[in-house]
């Protein structure tokens, strides 16, 4: 398997995540779609690192940072969603208008 196979996989995963983030109304599904997009970026980073500069681990280091950011994003996002659900009794993204006056 070459670099192009991994990049195609990464592009397909990113497209699936983008579709899910833009088309779904549930806040939990939107967060999961963002996680899929971050994982697609991590796959691309590791693939580029492996095939372009195989002696260095820069792609793997960036992937660890992506995983840490994704975990923090999921934790904070789920906490916000739980707080909104307690106050509004819904997690529908179209009905969440807390920032509006």
In total, how many beta strands?
0
What composes the largest sheet? none
User: pLDDT under 50 segments (min length 5)?
Assistant: none
The geometry reads as elongated
CATH fold group: Helix Hairpins
Distance between the termini: 54 Å
Radius of gyration: 17 Å
What would CATH call the architecture?
Answer: Orthogonal Bundle
* CATH level-1 class: Mainly Alpha
How do the SSEs run, as a string of H and E? Answer: HHH
Report the total helices.
3
Helix content: over 70%
Q: Which structural class best describes the helix and strand composition?
A: mainly alpha
| Overall pLDDT | 89
How many discrete structural domains? 1
Strand content: under 5%
Map the helices and strands.
Elements: H1 3-23, H2 27-52, H3 58-88
Walkthrough of the structure:
The protein is an all-alpha fold and 101 residues long. It has one domain: Orthogonal Bundle (Helix Hairpins), CATH 1.10.287. It has 3 helices and no strands. The protein has helices at 3-23, 27-52, 58-88. The longest helix is centred in the last third of the chain and has 31 residues, at 58-88. The termini are far apart. The mean pLDDT is 89.
């Amino acid at each position: 398997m070459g670099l192009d196979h991994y990049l195609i996989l990464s592009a397909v995963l990113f497209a699936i995540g983008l579709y899910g983030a833009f088309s779904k109304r549930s806040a939990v599904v939107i967060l999961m779609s963002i996680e899929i997009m971050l994982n697609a970026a991590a796959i691309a980073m590791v693939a580029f690192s492996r095939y372009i500069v195989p002696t260095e681990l820069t792609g793997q280091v960036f992937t660890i940072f992506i995983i840490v950011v994704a975990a923090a994003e999921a934790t904070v996002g789920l906490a916000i969603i739980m707080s909104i659900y307690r106050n509004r009794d819904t997690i529908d993204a179209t009905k969440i208008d807390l920032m509006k006056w």
